């Protein structure tokens, strides 16, 4: 049985973590399979948005598979580290928006998988945390950097240094959750609805907007504005821009069909 399942509905992909018997813990093989699927999606010019969700009610993902790590040699630990960096980098590098749909536990590498996505939708069963310091580790899937950028360094430090878990209400208050979902079990549906809304827009514009946001956010303002200008030019001189303006003046929905640039 595949540990990662991918389905398509038009321009939207749904990526499913499918190791519920292990609460979707990330083994070396799991990491390699998920990175490979993300690489395939990144190379697909027809993709406009994606959703990352999990099978199983108890967990989105509980992080690294510590049972597999038990007894690892230093060489095996380092080899897995390389595979894990490739995994998290493959999600961060996806050129279209991807939304994490979280229910249940999102701990350690599980929270980092969600943080690598552009947006997080979650229901009231969601529990978040970075417990690495409690087992003698430091988050290594972007947790120290991505969480600080999302909720600020002091709030991130509170979670990083204590290893404590936060429930849905506190996660919403902290800003970890972008799209709160009222009904339990409907985070995937909410994420898909959001992905479809994104996919209805110009793929050229959305891809370049994501590039400008991800590239420019940590640059000085002047450099970030140059990144924005590059993204603007890529969209402004595309067929999508011509179609968007034409459709607006003709009072009809636009039909975007150009390949993203």
TrEMBL record:
One of its GO terms (biological process) is fatty acid beta-oxidation. Its EC number is 4.2.1.17. CDD domains: crotonase-like. It catalyses: a 4-saturated-(3S)-3-hydroxyacyl-CoA = a (3E)-enoyl-CoA + H2O; a (3S)-3-hydroxyacyl-CoA = a (2E)-enoyl-CoA + H2O. The keyword Lyase applies. Pfam families: ECH_1. Keywords: Lipid metabolism, Lyase. The keyword Lipid metabolism applies. One of its GO terms (molecular function) is enoyl-CoA hydratase activity. Belongs to the enoyl-CoA hydratase/isomerase family. This is enoyl-CoA hydratase. It comes from Actinospica acidithermotolerans.
């Amino acid at each position: 049985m595949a540990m990662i399942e991918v389905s398509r509905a038009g321009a939207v992909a749904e990526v499913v973590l499918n190791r519920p018997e292990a609460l979707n813990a990330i083994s070396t093989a799991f990491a390699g399979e998920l990175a490979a699927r993300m690489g395939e999606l990144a190379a697909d010019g027809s993709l406009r948005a994606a959703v990352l969700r999990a099978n199983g009610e108890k967990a989105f993902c509980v992080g690294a598979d510590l049972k597999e790590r038990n007894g690892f040699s230093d060489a095996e630990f380092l080899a897995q580290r390389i595979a894990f960096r490739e995994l998290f980098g493959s999600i961060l590098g996806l050129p279209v928006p991807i939304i994490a749909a979280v229910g249940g536990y999102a701990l350690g590498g599980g929270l980092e998988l969600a943080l690598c996505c552009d947006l997080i939708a979650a229901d009231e069963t969601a529990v978040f945390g970075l417990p690495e310091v409690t087992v003698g580790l430091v988050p290594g899937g972007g947790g120290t950097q991505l969480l600080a950028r999302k909720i600020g360094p002091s709030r991130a430090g509170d979670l990083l240094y204590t290893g404590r878990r936060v429930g849905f209400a506190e996660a919403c208050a902290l800003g970890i959750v972008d799209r709160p979902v009222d009904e339990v079990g409907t985070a995937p549906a909410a994420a898909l609805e959001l992905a479809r809304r994104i996919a209805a827009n110009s793929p050229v514009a959305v891809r370049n907007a994501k590039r400008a946001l991800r590239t420019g956010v940590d640059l000085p303002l002047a450099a970030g504005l140059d990144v924005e200008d590059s993204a603007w030019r890529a969209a402004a001189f595309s067929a999508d821009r011509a179609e968007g303006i034409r459709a607006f003046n003709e009072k009809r929905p636009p039909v975007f069909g150009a390949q993203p640039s």
